[in-house]
Amino acid sequence: MTEEKFDLFVIGGGSGGVRAARVASSNGFKVGLAEGWDLGGTCVNRGCVPKKLYSYASHISDDFDLMSSFGWSVSSKKFSWQKLVDNKKKELSRLSQIYSSLLINSGVKLYKSYASFVDPNSIKIGNKIIHAKKFLIAVGTKPKKLNFLASDDIVTSDEAFDLKELPKSIMILGGGYIGVEFASIFNGLGVDTTICIRGNKILKGFDDDVVDHLMNNMKEKGVKFITGEFPYEIKKKRNLFYVSFNKSKTKEFHLVMEAVGREANVENLNVKAANIKISKNSSIVVNDYFQTSNKKIYAIGDVIDRIQLTPVAIAEAMTLIQNFKRKKKEKFNYNNIPTAVFSNPNFACVGYTETEAKKKFKNIEVFKSDFKPLKLSLSDLKERIFLKLITNKSNDKVVGLHYLGENAAEIIQGFSVALVKGLKKRDFDKTVGIHPSSAEEIVTLKN
After folding, report:
1. Cβ–Cβ under 8 Å, residues 82 and 90
2. How far apart, in whole angstroms, are the C-alpha atoms of residue 121 and residue 251?
3. How far apart are CA 95 and CA 300, in angstroms?
4. What is the mean pLDDT of the chain?
5. Mode of pairing for the β-strands spanning 339-341 and 347-351
6. Residue 283: helix, strand or coil by DSSP?
7. Lowest mean pLDDT among 215-224, 242-251, 364-373
8. Rounded CA separation 37/228 (Å)
9. 47, 68 Cβ separation under 8 angstroms
10. What is the pLDDT of residues 144-190, one digit of tens each?
11. Which residue among 99, 205, 254, 267 has its CA within the 20 to 30 Å range from the CA of 442?
12. How far apart are CA 425 and CA 148, in angstroms?
């Protein structure tokens, strides 16, 4: 065994880990990073980036249907799943190489292998023992798996991007971000798609009105929903999955996908050896400054189960490294973090839902708008835009903004600045809209 020493050693090469390593190294720390998988983590390789690329691909089907209303015509639609998969792989390979170059050029020593703790002060990577003044865990999460007879054949988001071929039909278990986004992708690519959830609504924790409108839009596009029940068994015979809901109800699908949540990827870290406290859901417990129960070990990103978003992990990394240099540490602010669901149509929001706002403030005011966008006005397509703005009535501050429609993420990203800065509804009202645009509705809302 050989031994090496660092000021900071990062375990995990996702967006948060890479950013922390780069910034620490540029500030004079001797830094190492271990990643046994592809650099970029889930987001780059099996999450945000390929998901958005596939989402673009799935929306083009609607564009074909829209063309005739503007006078265009094509003889037929033809889609190659394999070409999409191949092009995606090329892009992800390019991004992974960029991550590698960024680390090496910033002076970080890169270990292309997994790490595990051997004691509270050191880790093992292959035949090397690594000592560091500080360790940072940024290993992210992995898909949860349920226990069915056909579990070995049921896919998760990890496998869904690289299927050998598109199925004729698919049932997706779960109605969170991942389930809803993949349902829109498969549906847009021509797959007979069904979402199955235990409750009555998808996207638990999001605004109820927006969720209702999204479900209606998805149904109009052909997505089916099984609500209020969940399979007790799934079997596979030959090329079909037989999904049993009760003794008298069984449905058949060509593929089943699980999107029932994610869990911290700590299984191989040997956290017990490091005296690191783990929560009931296997995430790592940290204080307000990302410090674990072992004072020299820190954790950020999805593995700490606060807000599981790539930009949050990156921001946490920046806060952590800056705190290493500060005399007075600062806490990370989780308020008004915007988020998007790349469903069809897109959905994005920032701030409180109506339910949350009612609990937080004595009096609120809600402004809504529901309309068919100009882009679709010449067609028979039934997709609609829905938006909702919520204010704290006592001071007129905008405390929630929710937008369902094309380019929702781009629109909410800009308006997020207004909520972060505490702007009021009257500030929105003073802003001149860009006409004709769908986003102008946000600054012209009236009750």
Report:
1. no
2. 53
3. 22
4. 96
5. antiparallel
6. coil
7. 242-251
8. 38
9. no
10. 999 999 999 999 999 999 999 999 999 999 999 999 999 999 999 99
11. 205
12. 51
- Greatest C-alpha distance within the chain: 71
As annotated, the active-site residues are 435
- Give CA–CA dist 242/245, Å, rounded: 10
Token pair of 35 as six digits = 């990643």
Residue 105 three-state SS:
helix
What's residue 122's pLDDT? 97
List residues bridging with 136 in a β-sheet: 10, 298
Interval 235-259 mean pLDDT:
94
Q: Tokens 């809901």 belong to which residue?
A: 245
Order of strands across the sheet that contains 169-173: 224-227, 192-197, 169-173, 255-258
Q: Provide the 3-class DSSP secondary structure of residue 435.
A: coil
- The domains of the chain, with CATH numbers, are 2-142+263-325 (3.50.50.60), 145-260 (3.50.50.60), 345-443 (3.30.390.30)
pLDDT tens per residue across span 402-415? 999 999 999 999 99
**Element housing 237 (H / E):** strand 233-237
Q: Which of 60, 84, 56, 313 is nearest to 181 (CA)?
A: 56
Please write the tens of the pLDDT for every residue from 286-318: 999 999 999 999 999 999 999 999 999 999 999
Catalogue the E-assigned strands of 332-436.
339-341, 347-351, 364-371, 385-392, 397-404
Per-residue pLDDT tens digits for 95-137: 999 999 999 999 999 999 999 999 999 999 999 999 999 999 9
**DSSP string across 160-174:** HTT-SS--SEEEEE-
Beta-carbon-side half-sphere exposure of residue 163 (alpha carbons within 13 Å): 20
